[in-house]
Task: structure prediction
Amino acid sequence: MTPVPLNFESKIYGKPLPKNFNKKKFILSYNVVTNPNLLEIQNLSRKQCLGKTPWPEIDKIDAWMISSETATFMKWGGLGMIASELPEAFNACFGKKGHRLQVVTPLYTGDTKKKKAELNGDVYTGAEHYSVKLKKIKVINVPFYGDRSSLVKYKVTVYTGRCGNTDYIFLANDRFFSINPHKFNPSAQDGCYVLNEFGINEVERFAFFSKAVYELIENICDRRIKDISKPNVLIANDWHSGALAGLTKYLTTAKVETSDMSSELAAEIKSIPVVHIAHHLGYQGWDYENTSKILNSLYEDAAMLVFRNAKAIKNSNPRATNTLIVHDCYNQASCDFHLADRVVTVSKNYMEEVSKELGFGFDFRDILKIRKDHRNFFGIVNGYDKKLISPNKNKIDHINEFFKDFDFRVYDENNIDGKHHNKEEFIKLISRLASDREYKNKTIPLIDTYKFEDISKSVKNPAKTPIFCATSRLVEQKGYDIAAQAMINLCKKYTNFKRELPIFILGGAGDANYFELLTKLKDKVAQMNPKAAQRIFVFRGYKDEFAYAVQLASDFYMMPCRFEPCGLTQMEAMAKGALPIAMSTGGLVDTIEDGIDGFRTEVFFTEKRRVYGSNLTAKRLKNNVNAYAETLQKALEAFYLRPEKIRQMTVNAMHKDFSWDVPEGSVYKYFNLLKTGHL
Result:
């Protein structure tokens, strides 16, 4: 195959990147240039990674949190929580002093059968059942490639609204932000991640979202929109807005070169610093098939000009020599990792992991190591609003009303006896779901269960019956296969068990393959010990009330994660007195004190390398399954043999507070970062 050179000298203004250029063998090299605009593009990654761009003087923060998800209107995971709760905490703490953090997010419409969002007149009701009254600001044009591989000026309607103490900017477009699923949409994808009715996948959707945000900023800076003030900091919330720094810094420079923008307007847009929050590097926004389409959509007539000069900072990874692709594939996170003014990840330990280990940092490990060494990469633990997740009266009243005829009770760290009562109630609930099909279908119709069994009569003493749960997403990251093998190892070890057998409740929304793995776990345990298998409950799907009830009753929360950048689930579990049993990875190390308020493995491996723990322990345990099985055993034995220790650990866990606004909490670190560029 003849290589396709991309370093030719001729003028290429107005030329898109060749269709499917990445599917051919091509030579990627960079000319020595003297043109100041091209030189700026070539040197930008180095300048940004080394922290050479001065942070602007900011008197009053007026920042945008740019997020595909919000817990208020469209939630799928932790990044949706931070997009709602961080702005709310920020505005509560600093709003009276004139600082503000707004949220910019798509206005989704449609119905996936699990998530539904609609706009009726000027009232928007999101998928999380909150409604907001909107003000229409303007319709802007967003150039993006359509079905015929040419630029189309798609109409995006800009709305504003206010929810609580936070201002929202919504961007509406029926094609890209529809969540009506395509007939070929994978079963594991839902909400804003569906392959939608128009065949738009998640990477193309969020590339368009980034482009729409850029066009809004350009309209504001060019004084074509006056009802929205110009932001002085942009916060890109994970890979979904990972194209943003390339648009504000590359595209503006290229437009000056092609005489499509004044240097003054370009300078104004480029002066707005971009802070990129990386939640977990396992998700980066890859799209091999649409690489040329997306790059041509983002950079329009300047796509070739930008691409052939988008030189990455020198590092030891030959796959990451261009900031817009990794090897030969479009990667949405890549641009911000190279070009953002600051990069933040969601715990200090995860920051260390991704900048040291290929298994965590992937193609960006070396870049993040450079950033860390030059002090523009930080780890800030995600917070929460504790009063919303601790066992509070309003929530528990709702749980009782939802399930009917049950009496779950409020408890706290000063009186945890209510938790023992809740264990009895949950055993009744899980047994009714098992024995009354009509009740199950009416109460949790969208949750699939597998061989639920009535254990109401076999559990003689609920207080002395340990309950383990895991209600995370069914994805590889969460390590359900590790938990399953560890449970089988325990079952083999304890063949003649004299105490109350533990109860396990395992499941969540996500991949059907992991649900099948859990069903096989139950069947395999049934072959070894039918009574033990009777107390294993596996399910697929998610209902907030069910997950909440599970945690109210559970003594332990299982987190055998392959990686966990921060983790909110362990914080939520601890607030309810469910002690986490976790791998020693990422934010789990920062938030769980082993033996004090939870259990962590003594060692942790990735790609057969020891990442955490001593060499001696690593040689003894050999792998994560053995490490996790040992930790499960420690928790189980502590429950049976040292109940007072478990009681004190439960009190410690419930007492812990990761709220954003506690003294020295994360909201203050974000304030310092946005104000000064440093913590």
Remarks:
- The chain has 25 helices and 26 strands.
- The first helix runs from residue 36 to 49.
